[in-house]
Amino acid sequence: MRTHVLNIGEVKTDATPSIFTCFGLGSCIGLFVQDRATGISGGAHILLPEDVKANAKDGKCYNVKDALERLFMHFIRGGSTLDTLRAKFVGGANIITASGNVGEKNIRSVIDHLVAHRIFIAALDVGGSSSRTAHFHSCTSELRVRTAENNQYKIF
After folding, report:
1. How many other CB atoms are there within 10 angstroms of residue 76's CB atom?
2. Which of 21, 69, 106, 143 is most solvent-facing, going by the fewest CB within 10 Å?
3. Which Pfam families does the record match to this protein (predicted)?
């Protein structure tokens, strides 16, 4: 089984059994998408909401719009249609109160984009004030989320 660690701004997909991991999700979003029809799964570690422009460096996508466009492009190139995708996402915490609650803006932006593309949202663990680490297992569609405050896993 392959392991993909998604750093900030990274978007990856894989058609083989994989685990996608995002460490230290504060206001960032860890988005995990799967197409059970094609077997393709993928993820993105998103830093900023869509209304914040971020220059992509080294092929990275820092805002919601850019990350989702790149992720969907990978799925379509692999033979998926957007109506067969399922999404799970994590993060969007209000870690730094002086930041204008970027986490809440990230959550809203991701939901708006997924709904606009008719992507089914199968699970989410968002908001609050604690950072999270997320592991998505493509074989089982299981999302394991560990919060920093209690160091215990939730399974979605």
Report:
1. 12
2. 69
3. CheD
Q: How far is CA 4 from CA 64, 117, 147, 150, in A?
A: 20, 25, 20, 25
The distance between the two most distant Cα atoms of the chain, rounded to a whole number of Å, is 43
- The whole-angstrom separation of Cα 51 and Cα 134 is 25
**φ/ψ of residue 148, rounded to 5:** -70, -30
- Residue 82 is classified by DSSP as G
pLDDT, one tens digit per residue, over 103-140 is 999 999 999 999 999 999 999 999 999 999 999 999 99
pTM: 0.93
Cα–Cα distance measured from residue 142 to residue 156, given in angstroms and rounded to the nearest whole number = 6
Query: Domains in the chain and their CATH numbers?
Result: 2-155 (3.30.1330.200)
